[in-house]
Amino acid sequence: MDILYLMIICSVSLAVVFLIVFIYNAKKGQFEDDESPAVRILLEEDNPNDNHSDEPASETKTEEKSN
Question: What is the C-alpha to C-alpha distance for residues 21 and 26, in angstroms, rounded to an integer?
Fold first, then answer.
């Protein structure tokens, strides 16, 4: 029966630690990101500083070889 009291104390203590960590991170703004990085990659962004051409690299190489 003593082990039951020990396990209850350990589990409640662990739950309190997780609660404290959660509250700390919530106050720091850890959970404020509405749009996660996994979703950002799916959205198209027009970057004016991007110097890539619209043609794939394979087409450009074949055109250079034929000239």
Answer: 9
**What predicted TM-score, i.e. pTM, was given to this entire model?**
0.49
Angle 21-23-29 (CA atoms, 0-180°, nearest 5)?
105
DSSP 2-46: HHHHHHHHHHHHHHHHHHHHHHHHHHHTTT--SS-HHHHTTS---
The residue with tokens 């190489």 is 61
pLDDT in tens, 37-65: 777 777 777 665 666 555 555 555 555 55
State mean pLDDT over 16-31. Answer: 94
